[in-house]
Design brief:
Oligomer: homodimer
Number of helices of chain A: 18
Shape of chain A: globular
Structural class of chain A: alpha+beta
Distance between the termini of chain A: 71 Å
Number of strands of chain A: 32
CATH architecture of the largest domain in chain A: 2-Layer Sandwich
CATH topology of the largest domain in chain A: Aldehyde Oxidoreductase, domain 4
């Protein structure tokens, strides 16, 4: 028998047929009897006092059933960093002050969307505009207006990381470079905008169906903000049309729908339109990087010092984590003996910045990978060689931070080196840039202060051998329902088709922290595997008894066959033993339980994946226009559970990370986002996509289920850096301000020509 | 502290607010995207061959999306007595023959109900009518047409019960009476007609939402009839508008909706209209009773011999169980040393007869309680005295059948005797009739051949102390969600409001055989109690550790306080210990499991409740019209879990059982039911209701949760007999053919006058 029967095979997604036939239900599709439609009134001012809100005209409009403002709330400020009350700073429905264009001030429930829209126009808000600040570098000056009471210099939070002795190390360096970079914002642009359907029953119990990455968080946060117990909230995540980091905090659609339903005791649905999605939801954190990097002549990097100011926008959100992670990943994927990071997050009167796929690492990787190329050039060392010299290796310990067990970085460097050689001598104006990266498999930090295991799963085996798998994991399109079903099938020894997964319904599934930070495969996968093994062991007891085998033999289940590990032909049918076992247990179905919380793995993540990417571009030296020709990625994610899934993740990541490096941006005028539509916001489209190739490197992660680890989010990290390095190789200009638009390349080429003259 | 905090208190139903505000969702209310509406074509013939069915015209009708006939099925015959394949005799969609007016032959799914109705008219069925038989006494003669192939004399099944030596015992009797009785049919008349919404997904998995008493049965039977695995069917029972025995078999709405959805892969909803509900669903079994009863002069009953022929209608259904139970309950509630029962169920060309509240016992109780009054009169003994002399007592063993542990029959007799005395001397033409009865608390027989425990429950305690209770029990209006929540709250020691119950969804709840035979309180109650105690014990471990108590002390939880049983002031908060315990278990929620399958309790039921009812009537001697003046019931159901629930059950039972005795009937002409509407079918309405009074007798059933047993169905047994006895007392006529209509009383009075002349 081959090692695995399900893992590593090319299967259809378990939700594939439903999705391609259009029968999969999203919150967007849902309708309940007596349902009302909600709309949210948002601030047109970046910073203003609310003097009064008059909703009386709106309330009188025929078809309007309820209007709520901040006065209808319990007046609590929310935040996902619940361990730190001072970071819970967002009211959602503002009572006294608005802090960005898009801040919510009122919401309406009406019999249809048009009526609700009309009612918004009838709400009269009397604002007193206040001076506003938009740039974080200005926000932290004495002159800037104060955005949150009691927060000096608008510094929301700072993070410090340090090991070794950076100040001493500079003396030992043969070469030191200091550079500044600016990382821009980016929108998540999910296919499904934020939406929620909330229904309070007459016993005061709330059910929310919503497009979310973390049903459990929404349950807890909604309860908190409504002043009810979390056990009285059930959050159900039907299929979700993308999250990418934008959907694991309580949002205005969820909160306003719930508040309206609490008031009117009818189901209320709110779907944000695309303009709201761009302007009034959270986005990737823009960062200002100031970096000093020193090395020996031979390329050995001795010290790095990083200072970062991030544009926080109006509220904390997940920005505190992004600030922390960009500092941690600024050391990646290299062994810096001396390292210091100081990050500051500044409040600004812009839309809050928060988590987005990569979570601070695309920024740090862009900066770090640009600089290591610059350093290599200065020292006359090959870019791959300098990475090889400093790159992390298995069992490396990041001092005081993390224990990296598996690490395939060097194999990835070898593979990309081979790839670059194979591309041969390039035509003029072409260049290949290389970028190395690593990423985590879920976070260990518990700012949410959950008392539950990070992941839990329950496996129930029914009389016909079919399996109900209950997990709090959130299927957001990333394929977790498929991956977890595969893990369950493999661990239990049955067919994938035998598994029916129930996920992300807090009424019936055990808690899970949700789909963010690339945590589901490793963390929930471990819980699922343990639950399946718990159930399997119960069956093996009955099989062993029936077969009367010598107790020294090990038994296992594979493909529905319970057998001796060393004599696989000796066995009994799983389906028969299920029947025996249920009878033996007086008719109780077989139930297995498993949970996973990382222990003894440092402060960041239980495991890290690594990779190296090569981007090839062709630049027009006259106009600066350039084209992504090829992006090849050597990637290791431990054992590959679902190869088709990884391919999809890779292509999606190149589209998204390429967009971050190449074209996506959110220009603003006095805090107003100027391109809040898919027509004006430039995404990489199918026709713009480069050739993509994946070179899968084999590793095994001892902490992961069957040796698996992260396989989707880390892929977002390298591309901006690889593009920057490729543009430098092709055109000789270094762009330090994302995105690397053709316009910026043109201006740099012009400046370079002028300088050369 | 008082003994119980939740049990025995007067609480609102947990679903009460939803129900009175109209927000509770029934299958009837459900809508899914792309849903189609189904209708069923039914036979107009009581017995006919199907020569051909032409659906082509119907298929061409605009708006029709699918038509199915027997040819679309896998050709399997269904039945709920799965251990006996020969009793699985119903195709639902007939292929070769129809056997009653209402048998289904085709079904249509269309964009709306009108179109579906129109399509039914376009289906051309070529029938060859066959000779039919309607009366069971005729059906078992040689001359009768054969209804099912290979079934001689149309005898579907027979049952025999015997103990002692009846033939010898007659010699010792001083007085023997022999009488014949006819028990009529009765319709369940649920507020919600049979309905189902079936949705097959593209992976071949089926979800059925349906009004049912047994979601688990529907899951299994639907899978069986569709040729798919039961793990691929999820049956969800939303709120159900009444069952009364009519809704725990697979019905035409469920099967046709599922078959149509399987064909068209869209959701299909079928709601039977009221006429179909009366003519094409199952009904109470009419029975022909032939009884011989012998006693000593002092009233000691020595022997009883009962022969019963039941009108089976076209299929077996639950009729086999009704045949068995009417035989068992013909011995109730008395200690017959010698007893023999022979029952025969005859197929007829009428709508199948099956289970209905009381399940054979209302018939046997009417006959038995009429005859014991006749016997008492013959012997000159007071009716209550003769019952006292023969009545069952605690720990009585019905030979070879049942072990009755708790029994409050004698206390009930005392209470009714007191009540009758208090009524004093009655005016002329008034009479009080007494009737004693017993009933079971769920059946032990497993004709369904389930491999699962009869009842199972899972209790999950969340971090805030709120409890998710998962049970397969079916809330059908009888209040099981409330009763089970109360048991859970009491057993765990928390507030009722802390419980959130999830019931009767086979995808997420452990199996339960459903709500029939008065099984949920005792059987599911035991499972819930055990699951709650399992969870409680896990908490007590942590509390004991925290308090550092001497291990000889016992601990318990009550009102959220974990304390020493003997020093209740020494304790800790449940809510605190929940947090500790979840942390201690590395974040896994506390999960308790419990199941219950009766063992060592004989062949019928784990427990029996008893009661005595007195009905007072006033008869107009000229016209036979009579009025129910007062019905008083002394009742014992062990510990009363939910007193308000019992009151509701009692009033409902008097309405239903009074109707059975007084006015409900289903007259037929050549197999056609003549009154298939609520206008023509006579129910007891609010204005017809007598005064009702309940005298609760305290008992404790060791097998039941907290000492509880059955409390709703048994109440349907005594009323027809009590009315019959009261009419005899008031007017001197004995009516032996149900219902005891004024017309029958009038005719009997006329005959009596003629005889007296």
């Amino acid at each position: 028998m081959s090692k695995y029967s399900v893992i590593g095979t090319r299967v259809h997604r378990v939700d594939g047929v439903e999705k391609v036939t259009g029968t999969a239900k999203y919150t967007f599709d849902m309708v309940l009897p007596n349902m009302l439609y909600g709309k949210i009134l948002r601030s047109p001012h970046p910073h203003a006092k609310i003097l009064s809100i008059d909703t009386s005209k709106a309330e009188k409009l025929i078809g309007v059933k309820a209007v709520v403002t901040g006065k209808d709330t319990i007046g609590k400020k929310q935040g996902i960093w619940r361990r730190f009350p001072e970071l819970c700073d967002e009211e959602i429905l503002c009572r006294e002050k608005v802090r960005y264009i898009g801040d919510a001030v009122a919401a309406v429930a009406a019999i249809d969307e048009d009526t609700a829209e009309e009612a918004l126009d009838l709400i009269e808000v009397d604002y007193e505009p206040l001076p506003a600040v938009f740039n974080p570098m200005e926000a932290i000056t004495e002159e800037a207006p104060q955005i949150h009471e009691g927060v000096e210099l608008n510094i929301n939070i700072n993070r410090h990381l340090e090991w070794g002795n950076v100040d001493d190390a500079w003396k030992d360096c043969d070469h030191i470079i200091e550079e500044q970079y600016v990382c821009s914002s980016q929108a998540h642009v999910c296919m499904e905008t934020h939406d929620a359907l909330a229904s309070f029953d007459h016993n005061g119990k709330l059910t929310i169906w919503t497009s979310t990455q973390a049903a459990y968080y929404i349950q807890v946060l909604a309860a908190d903000m409504l002043g009810i117990r979390e056990g009285d909230v059930r959050c159900i995540n039907p299929y979700t049309g993308g999250g990418f980091g934008s959907k694991f905090e309580l949002d205005s659609a969820q909160f306003c729908a719930a508040l309206l339903s609490q008031k009117i005791r009818r189901p209320v649905k709110i779907v944000l339109n695309r303009e709201e999605e761009f302007t009034a939801t959270k986005r990737r954190t823009p960062m200002y990087y100031f970096v000093k990097l020193g090395a020996k002549k031979d390329g050995t990097m001795l010290a790095k010092e990083v200072r970062v100011i991030t544009e926080g926008g109006a509220y904390t959100a997940m920005g505190a984590t992004a600030l922390y992670l960009t500092g941690f990943f600024s050391s990646f994927p290299y062994k810096y003996p001396n390292y210091r990071y100081d990050g500051y997050r500044a409040y600004t009167n812009t839309a809050p910045t928060s988590a987005m796929r990569g979570f601070g690492a695309p920024q740090s990787t862009f900066v770090g990978e640009s600089m290591i190329d610059n350093l290599a050039e200065d020292l006359g060392i090959d870019p791959i060689e300098i990475r090889r010299k400093n790159g992390m290796t298995p069992n490396y310990v990041v001092p005081g931070q993390a224990w990296i067990q598996s690490c395939g970085l060097h194999e990835c460097l070898d593979a990309i080196e081979k790839h670059v050689k194979e591309r041969g001598k390039l035509p003029p104006n072409r260049g290949i840039g290389v970028s190395a990266y690593g990423f985590m498999s879920g976070g260990i930090f518990n700012w949410f202060d959950t008392p539950y295991a990070f992941s839990s799963a329950i496996v129930r085996i029914n009389i016909d051998g079919k399996v109900d798998l209950f997990t709090g994991a959130n299927e957001i399109g990333q394929g977790s329902n498929t991956t977890l079903s595969m893990i369950c099938a493999e661990a239990l020894g049955v067919k994938l088709d035998d598994i029916r997964i129930h996920s992300a319904d807090t009424g019936i599934c055990p808690p899970d922290l949700g789909a963010w930070g690339s945590r589901e495969t490793l963390m929930n996968g471990n819980a699922v595997k343990r639950a399946a093994e718990d159930a399997k062991n119960q069956l093996i007891e009955f099989a062993a008894a029936k077969m009367g085998i010598n107790i020294v033999y090990d038994m296992d289940i594979k493909d529905g066959w319970i057998h001796l590990v060393d004599r696989p032909e000796r066995g009994v049918s799983y389906y028969d033993i299920v029947k025996d076992a249920i009878r033996g247990k007086d008719g109780e179905a077989i139930i297995g339980r498993g949970h996973y919380t990382p222990h003894r793995k440092g402060m960041i993540s239980p495991a890290y994946s690594f990779g190296v990417q090569a981007a090839e571009v062709e630049v027009d030296p006259e106009t600066g226009r350039y084209k992504l020709v090829n992006v090849t990625t050597a990637h290791e994610s431990g054992t590959v559970i679902n190869p088709v899934g990884i391919e999809g993740q890779l292509e999606g990541a190149i589209m998204m990370a390429g967009g971050y490096g190449f074209c996506e941006d959110q220009p603003m005028d006095e805090g107003k986002i100027l391109n809040p539509s898919i027509a004006d916001y430039k995404l990489i489209r199918a026709l713009d996509m480069p050739e993509t190739e994946i070179l899968e490197i084999d590793t095994y992660e001892p902490e992961g289920p069957f040796g698996a680890k992260e396989a989707g989010e880390g892929l977002t990290n390298p591309t901006a850096g690889a593009i920057g390095n490729a543009v430098y190789k092709a055109a000789g200009v270094r762009i330090r301000h994302l995105p690397i638009t053709p316009e910026k390349v043109f201006r740099a080429l012009e400046a370079k020509k002028k300088q050369e003259k």
